[in-house]
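FORM 12-B: Structure-to-Sequence Request
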């Protein structure tokens, strides 16, 4: 078992740190490139100024005209340097003093920029340009020390890192608050379920997120389903108590009158009622309780039980090999199928049949027998009883009250008609929940 909230928090925190780190690295390299491009622009501008400042004196010697370049090139180790190579002459800035420069400065073929270490801790960004002036090939070499700018960039990067850490901590805190508010819905659900279990009033309604709405809907269906099952159980117990009341009263009267010979009939009545309830329990009983309804497994067991109870009746089952589970309560389906198949066997002359059809939308159960059946008036009487059929009605009315309760729970329908076998045909349709049910292949 693990905490979903802690797992989400941990994953979000790790992802946030990774994203922030990558973003900081990208920003650092972009800023570094931006500063280099800025310095390179200045170098190109100085190179253009240097080209215009290089002139020949009356002796045809090349020189950089005084006052044409910035004074920063006159200070030793100022961080700004130039060198002009033309006709075997090397014109260098005073800032270079006796510093050696890379050999590319005099290379008449190289042109472009590069980064190279300078004297001491300096780091030079160099721009090299090749031109022709007065018919002479001239190589212009201009450099600037960018180490101070890089140190400032690293300092700003450290400040940015500290800011990112603070923002990350703030986001984690806000994330914890948001998750706490979002997960309150589960606390609300638990408290409501606890209230229902303890038979307290339900808490005030809470606005449910769309992502949680299906779960809440399923829990509400489960609660309603359990309520309906409890109500059906109460109906069954009430009916059983009502049917036992009359025989017990007769027994009491017979005992008061001390007429032992008359006790046989009420005792037989009690025995019949008890046998009927035990038969229902036997139909629904197996090693597995609850769960999904697997037709192929359960029907084999059901037919075997009916053949033992009614050895003179031939029971036929018509259905495909439906081994996939249906998302219907197993106990409900066994009770429904068992009661109706028991009725068909009980009132059949020699043959009873059950046909099962499954589509994407519904489960259809068709029960038939070759008994005497019901006339039109009796069928109409059963239909007119509506949502609850009386279990005390003779014949096929036995157990129909429980069946109707189950069918009503699943918003299904039950219909009575004449069977092709000559007896009664009962058709039950149970619709599937189209929103989220999974269906086996028809």
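FORM 12-B RESPONSE
SEQUENCE OUT:
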């Amino acid at each position: 078992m693990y905490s979903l909230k802690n797992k989400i928090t941990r994953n979000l925190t790790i992802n946030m740190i990774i994203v922030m780190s990558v973003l900081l690295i990208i920003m650092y390299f972009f800023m570094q490139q931006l500063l280099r491009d800025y310095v390179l622009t200045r170098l190109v501008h100085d190179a253009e100024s240097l080209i215009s400042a290089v002139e020949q004196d009356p002796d045809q010697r090349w020189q950089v005209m005084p006052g044409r370049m910035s004074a920063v090139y006159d200070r030793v180790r100022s961080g700004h340097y130039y060198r002009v190579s033309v006709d075997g002459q090397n014109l260098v800035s005073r800032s270079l003093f006796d510093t050696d420069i890379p050999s590319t400065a005099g290379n008449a073929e190289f042109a472009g920029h590069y980064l190279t270490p300078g004297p001491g801790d300096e780091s030079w960004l160099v721009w090299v340009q090749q031109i022709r002036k007065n018919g002479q090939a001239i190589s212009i070499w201009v450099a600037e020390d960018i180490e101070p700018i890089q140190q400032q960039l690293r300092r700003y990067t450290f400040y940015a890192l500290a800011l990112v850490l603070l923002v990350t901590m703030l986001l984690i805190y806000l994330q914890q608050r948001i998750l706490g508010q979002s997960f309150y819905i589960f606390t609300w659900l638990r408290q409501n379920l606890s209230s229902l279990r303890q038979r307290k009033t339900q808490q005030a309604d809470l606005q449910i997120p769309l992502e949680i709405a299906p779960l809440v809907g399923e829990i509400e269906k489960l609660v309603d389903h359990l309520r309906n099952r409890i109500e059906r159980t109460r109906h069954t117990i009430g009916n059983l108590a009502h049917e036992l009341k009359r025989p017990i009263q007769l027994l009491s009267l017979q005992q008061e009158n001390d007429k032992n010979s008359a006790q046989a009939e009420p005792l037989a009545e009690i025995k019949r009622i008890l046998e009927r309830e035990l038969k229902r329990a036997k139909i629904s009983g197996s090693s597995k309780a609850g769960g999904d309804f697997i037709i192929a497994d359960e029907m084999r067991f059901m037919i075997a039980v009916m053949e033992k109870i009614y050895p003179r009746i031939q029971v036929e089952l018509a259905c495909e090999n439906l081994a996939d589970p249906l998302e219907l309560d197993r106990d409900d389906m066994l009770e429904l199928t068992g009661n109706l198949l028991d009725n068909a066997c009980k009132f059949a002359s020699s043959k009873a049949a059950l046909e099962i059809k499954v589509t994407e939308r519904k489960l259809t159960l068709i029960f038939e027998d070759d008994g005497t059946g019901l006339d039109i008036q009796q069928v109409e009487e059963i239909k007119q009883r509506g949502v609850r059929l009386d279990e005390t009605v003779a014949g096929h009315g036995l157990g129909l009250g429980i069946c109707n309760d189950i069918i009503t729970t699943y918003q299904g329908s039950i219909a009575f008609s004449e069977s092709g076998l000559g007896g009664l045909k009962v058709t039950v349709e149970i619709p599937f929940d189209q929103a989220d049910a999974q269906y086996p292949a028809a």
